[in-house]
Write a structure and sequence with these properties.
This protein is of the alpha+beta class. The protein has 2 domains: 28-80, 2,3-Dihydroxybiphenyl 1,2-Dioxygenase, domain 1; 90-205, Signal recognition particle alu RNA binding heterodimer, srp9/1 (2-Layer Sandwich). It has 8 helices and 9 strands. Strand 6 (118-121) and strand 7 form a beta hairpin. The radius of gyration is 19 Å and the shape is globular.
């Protein structure tokens, strides 16, 4: 039985009490509409190391783990570009198992001409941001703490309240330090630089 089936069977075995709050068990997938269909499909396949489950020129379903699809790309010719300065989704984040996996992905996609637009240690995560051909922003991240409790404690502390944005880093320097064998504990620890304003400092739009 798959993990999805186990989750479904567990859900089916109990009926929530009337009025109780039932949360989703996971975020399943994202769907993007685009007029740059081929470029978008190629980008997500390269960035995420995804495989194509189905693609027919109108719709592509991409997967990279045990879910049947995580990203779908819908081809709608003639769509206008996204204008700046309007409300909407800021970015979508994907978590990697280790700092070495994150660095390996950075090195792999850089060789393909895909470069990060912003790299920062948020505190809870070490993150590299990318922009797809339509300008949608993707965060590739690794958790900096070994437990949810440690991450929660940091986020509820004074240092994170003072600077919830992050401390920027050079991904090439991080990659060299990882390859040199420095410990994850040292590399993931965020420097303390004091307050940081979102509008004046963050490079992503």
């Amino acid at each position: 039985m798959t993990s999805n089936a186990v989750s479904s069977s567990r859900q089916a075995s109990t009926t929530p009490a009337a009025g109780s709050v039932v949360s989703p068990i996971k975020l399943a997938h994202i769907v993007l509409r685009t007029a740059r269909y081929a470029a978008m499909v190629d980008f997500y396949r390269k960035l995420l190391g995804a495989r194509t489950q189905m693609e027919n020129g109108v719709l592509a379903f991409l997967a990279y783990d045990d879910e049947h699809h995580r990203v779908a790309v819908l081809n709608i010719p003639g769509l206008a570009d996204q204008p700046d300065g309007i409300a909407g989704v800021h970015h979508i984040a994907f978590t990697y198992a280790s700092l070495r996996d994150l660095v390996s992905t950075y090195e792999r996609v850089e060789r393909l001409g895909i470069k990060p637009i912003w790299c920062t240690n948020h505190g809870p995560t070490t993150s590299m941001y990318y922009a797809d051909p339509d300008g949608n922003q993707l965060e590739l991240q690794v958790d900096n703490f070994d437990s949810v409790e440690e991450a929660d404690a940091f986020m509820q502390g004074g240092e994170f309240r003072e600077n919830p944005i992050g401390v920027d880093f050079d991904p090439a320097v991080l990659a060299r330090r990882v390859r040199a064998g420095e410990s994850d504990k040292v590399l993931k620890k965020r420097a303390h630089i004091g307050p940081r304003g979102f509008d004046s400092s963050v490079k992503i739009r």
